[in-house]
Amino acid sequence: MILNMGPQHPSTHGVLRVLLEIDGETVVRIMPDIGFLHTGIEKTCEAKFYQQVVPLTDRIDYLCPMTNNLCYVLAVEKLLGLEIPPKAQWLRVLLNELTRINSHLVWLGTHALDIGAMTVFLYCFREREDILRIFEMASGQRMMTSYFRVGGIALEPPLGFFERVREFAGRFPEKVDEYENLLTGNPIWMMRTKGVARITAEDAIALGATGPTLRGSGVDFDLRRDMPYSGYENFKFKVPVAQEGDVFARYMCRVRELRESIEIVRQALDGMPEGPVKADAPGVVLPDREKMKTQMEALIYHFKIITEGFAVPAGEVYQAVESPRGEMGYYIVSDGTAKPYRVHMRAACFANLQTLPKMCEGGLLADVVAAIGSIDIVLGEIDR
Amino acid sequence: MPLVPAITDLEQLKGHPAVARLLAWNRAAVVEVKFDREEMTICVDRGNIREACAVLRDDAECAFNFLSDVTCVDWYPAEPRFEVIYHLLSIPKKERVRLKVRLDSASPAVESLTSLWPGANYFEREVFDLFGIRFTGHPYMRRILMPEDWEGHPLRKDYPVEGYR
Could you tell me the pTM of the whole model? Predict the structure, then answer.
């Protein structure tokens, strides 16, 4: 029998359509159908100035906007050959790890909800709310933050920001204990996840899986540690790896990542360097408001950046960062003008979704929901 | 890191493991090399891309065992018009390399990598959908992001930003 699941289905986390060929309760063939959320962001980028692309990057993956911001600005900074002050780098790391926690909380809540554990969802969204308030405090926005700029970050965080993050970092680990109390040893949870939707390390690599989907199969690879960017080499953290390659292994990887991320946040708070948050590059970075109103030079630069952008030397770069879902990569080609010639986003879930048939074929129909949840897909990123 | 001029001289770059391996395998397949902004780009002859990737994947020195990304750039109206870009990653060596194939607008087709990495499937379908490049040997060469009945390939440079309709 052919069964059509989605595009409007609560457990597909967006508009994913899955075509299932089933024999009784067993899945014979599974085919994801994507593209329902395609908005042509890559084409739009070609018509914008470099600084105007930043708000578009938020909208690709709306659960980890800062990671996308970071990846894009790192790529443009690499094209420009721009040096970023240490404080901006550390703030970026801090906010990125909060974003990772935010994204993992949404994943954990909805994944548990799919399998039937309602309570976890309410617990996770309670902490997520705290993180969104921290984002709002810094950037003025809860979700579409657009807080990073080419050459630094938009504004110095407001007074009381660091205290608030410290307070959150202090109480978050015991919240993770709460989630684990509800799930990790829970017999129903283990029956629904252990041994379900297995994938081997060879298959995961061949299919282009990254992030927890790859590490859940025993491949110890994390871009933050292995190919560091934005000052990650200054932080000490463990990369959680699990060997089994099933839903439970991927769950354990992400839950342990929650603890590691909050540890990185704490290190970033303790070692936050002093200094400016923007690079000294007047032609690229917008001047401070105060200077713009008192200095002629600054006003001219401001006018020029806003009206005609800044030219980027011709060339091409590929910059990848470890997003909560895996390798997020931006490939940017510049032809020497103020608008990118080509922007390509390598979306982690786009490749991760290809593992779905390997995981589900031969399994039970009810496990498809668990498998989709364990890949942690965001359709905005898949379809762009 | 301030910008330094790109190195395009093959003699200077042949110490790079990926370049050395490809030169040892087939000197004629390497069309052009470039080292710019700490990234290595090797332009490969269009008929040899699949074997070149296989050589880099299976060689113990390079071990580029992971295909990160496949994409394309349209240089309209220049010829050869299309550049298909492959980003390879070596998980054991923690290295990246970029391979390129140039295709003219008359016959934009290149061999598919799905036999080496099944994960190339979606990426190649996306390039086909948005640029109209055909990948020979691909198991399911259909549109992936745009609707089945869409006309044209939206990421081509002669396709208007507002679309045709």
Answer: 0.92
